[in-house]
Specification:
By secondary structure, this protein is α/β, with parallel strands linked by helices. It has helices spanning 19-36, 54-63, 66-69, 80-93, 95-98, 138-144, 172-185, 198-209, 234-246, 250-266, 273-276, 283-297, 302-305, 325-334, 348-352, 356-367; strands at 2-3, 42-43, 100-105, 111-117, 123-127, 149-153, 191-196, 214-220, 312-317, 338-343.
Length: 374
Amino acid sequence: MRVVAVARDAEPSPGGRPPAQWRALRALLARVGRRTGVSGLVLSGEEAYDDLHVFERVISERLALADLLDSVGAVPVDRLREVDSVVAAALTESFEGLSHRETVISADGAPLNVYAAGEGEETVVLVPACGMPAALAEAWVRYFARNRRVLTWESRGLFGAAGPGEEQATGIDAQAGDLFAVMDHHGATAAHVIGLCGGAAIALAAAAELPSRIRSLSLWHGAYGFGENYPMTAHQQGLIELMTTAARSRTAAEAVHAAFCQAILTSTPPDVAHFVLYPYASPELLYRYCRLNLGITGTDVEPYLDRVGLPTLVVTSRDDDIAHPEGSQRVAAGLPRGQLRVEPHGDHISLFSADASLLRVAEEFMGRHRVPAH
């Protein structure tokens, strides 16, 4: 991946920088990359911002190397340990430092990146938004890991997949099976389950399949599919149309990749763009992501509802313009023990930086259904 040290509105002139500064910045980036296990970052001085791929733009802006270029100098050998100490401290405080990552094989053979954090009598399973890196839900993991064990994972086929030959099932039932594979690996016979965005539909399918393994269920800003009168926002409708095209073939995904990237980039806040744009980083990832997402949104969830007798909290907001609030309302109304909560504001994106008041809502709901989870 190319990384440049220019800002969005800066003139593309890194080639004119003093060579010593440029070499020093390259060396510093390379050292930090090695210490963090990040490979493939190439500091380049030849590209203008507009010549970068969308993910390269996002990472370049996130690193903000333009702010360092005028002042950076070669780090003396006797100061390199200080650089390493700063990197080590940052890693300790990061999502990777918080959680333990393992590869778990699901029931149908699909490998999953699984993360565990915290300890406690109860287990909480976070069902992630489809295609998003687990670190996007760090606020949720960190909050519940204070006094509980927290498990989560990354969507099948999108993380660490080697190439087009590795095809995995994409239906909602296979994705719901991943939840139980994660629990089984960690010896959790039952858990509180929290579904975020598309993960809400996966959690609902899992609860319908094996309700005895779920103590309580909370579904946040769910993106649900229905057989008829499907409530969709303009954002949902446009996204599903693009996904339907991209999921047809790898050739189709490549053809719409640029349009997809532009649509998502313009609607994604910069502070989470490096997470949210991951499944759009290449046509291959886009193809896989769209197939997984359509496995969720293309499933009518209404047949699941009367099979879920668990206490279930369903959360949406009045102004969610990403996932239509009516979808959550229909789910809550159809659940025997559904409880609808409508916030004044919120959507898919703001959900991941949830403030303490929202997290307390989830915790208080679980607290009313406390049962040892393993």
